[in-house]
């Protein structure tokens, strides 16, 4: 639990103190989107198929912390620093860099408690390696959609 609480503190501190791009509206959207997507995914992979679990195989409050205050600031940082105006190669490298960072963090969470809190069933690091870039691309599409909605609200005649 110490590793989780320390991560929550650091990720939120960095996400909110370095944010230069995201509006409050976008932060709220990203926060809810991240939480909903993670909980929906975990309901299937974690609770139905026991692919992985946090702490124990039971539903626990610690898992809610992971969904609600650990993962959203990571997505905030990803979007805040994303190179929107760069070439496609740089964008791909950025996504792969963040995917690798997530994999390294996942390996740390596999350490024994009090640092680690994540456990594999049939899931493994290679599943995450394949999944993470797709999740970042989905997040980017969602963010761009929210930006279009905001632009439409600001200028309804467009």
Automatic annotation (TrEMBL):
Q: What are the TM regions of this chain, as residue ranges?
A: 30-55, 61-80, 92-111, 123-143
Write the record's keywords in alphabetical order, separated by commas.
Answer: Membrane, Transmembrane, Transmembrane helix
Query: Membrane as a keyword?
Result: yes
Q: Does the keyword Transmembrane apply?
A: yes
Q: Which domain of life is it from?
A: Bacteria
Protein name, entry field: Uncharacterized protein
| Top-level taxonomy | Bacteria, Bacillati, Bacillota, Bacilli, Bacillales
């Amino acid at each position: 639990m110490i590793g989780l609480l320390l991560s929550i503190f650091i990720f939120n501190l960095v996400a909110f103190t370095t944010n230069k791009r995201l509006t409050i509206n976008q932060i709220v959207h990203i926060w809810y989107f991240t939480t909903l997507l993670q909980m929906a995914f975990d309901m299937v992979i974690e609770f139905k198929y026991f692919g992985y679990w946090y702490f124990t195989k039971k539903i626990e409050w610690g898992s809610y912390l992971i969904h609600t205050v650990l993962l959203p600031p990571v997505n905030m940082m990803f979007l805040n620093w994303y190179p929107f105006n760069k070439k496609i190669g740089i964008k791909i490298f950025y996504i792969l860099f963040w995917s690798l960072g997530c994999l390294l963090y996942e390996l740390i969470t596999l350490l024994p408690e009090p640092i680690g809190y994540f456990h594999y069933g049939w899931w493994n690091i290679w599943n995450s390696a394949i999944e993470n870039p797709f999740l970042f691309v989905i997040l980017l599409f969602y963010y761009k959609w929210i930006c279009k909605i905001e632009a439409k609200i600001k200028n309804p005649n467009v």
